[in-house]
Design brief:
The chain is α/β, with parallel strands linked by helices and 388 residues long. The protein is 46% helix and 16% strand.
Amino acid sequence: MKICVVTGTFHPEPGGPSTYLYNLLGDLVRRGHEVAVITYGDIEEDYDYPYPVVRISRRQSVPLRLIKFVYYILSIGRQYDLLFVNNYGLPAVVANAFLRKPMAMKLVGDFAWEYSIRHGLINKNESIDEFQRQGHSFKVELLRQLQLFYTSKADAIIAPSQYLKGIISGWGIPQDKIEVIYNAIDVSKYDLACTKEKARGRLGLNGKVILTVARLTPWKGVDKIIEVLPEIRERVSEANLVVVGNGPELDNLQRLAREVGVERYVSFVGHVPHEEVPYYLRAADVFVLYSGYEGLPHIVLEATATGVPVVLSDTGGNPEVIEDGVNGLLVPIGDQEELQGAILRVLQDKELAGEFVKRSREKVAHSFAWDVMVERTLEVFQAAMNSN
């Protein structure tokens, strides 16, 4: 099979979608498939991929780079059997009006909601679920209709969780067109030959390490973790928060840390190469992701495979990975007392933390197996080609 991948982000850029594609495409090539990637990026370093990667600079104006994106899909896509679109459907659909290729699409969020928050079109604290139910300005409704338009043109859609399938079907996409394929990892790749002490020495960390890894956007909830840190430190005086990731909220989060008096105990690490993230996970005593939305977070799979207990918000696809009190803790959004208590519970109860690690690793190995994900993805590709 010859697969032309269209994506807004790709390796070595951070984030679950980049990691997912980088690992998936390498596996597809090893299985004898031919792939090419069209993406955005301003990467100066050369990477030796076993397939061509065309990057379009984000430094150009939006209209120009969209035109270039469509051009490259037209010129490259005609040589391939299938377009595989990842969260960047509009240029692919425009190009495919001429190519008429089978098209599979993976969606990991609601573009209209994220765009509206980033550009101040809605309140930054409006959740993705609230966004589905409420009416908005003409511009926001236009974005929603645009998203429905290009999504409806896919022959098959992959969603990473049952929760997100419900969101997508709520737009008006038939449920039988949407296949849930969980994100997955190869657990064996996270058996680091490195103890927690060595990982901490490598990274210069000490004390009790509370770790979060996220793009710093309003819905990721990093501010809520910072706000409960003073109370946590009253009970566990050596507790520190390590924040891995960059994003538009960085300045606000640094200011908040100063305001609540924990600036010395919060480390903003910034962007970390993906191959370094497991060392931060290995060094942590607890991993926390208190986001208002997650389709199905790849970083949580990595955390559990690396052997760190997790505390998550009970939103989105999180409950499909973690069962509260069984292999981790789930905390309601907006209940910071519960968040504080959950983090303290993991930090102070080593036996419980160890049970969470054991059970979550077992679940990831069983329910989020890499080979199963690849096989099911190829089945969706074939179904898209058969339906075209």
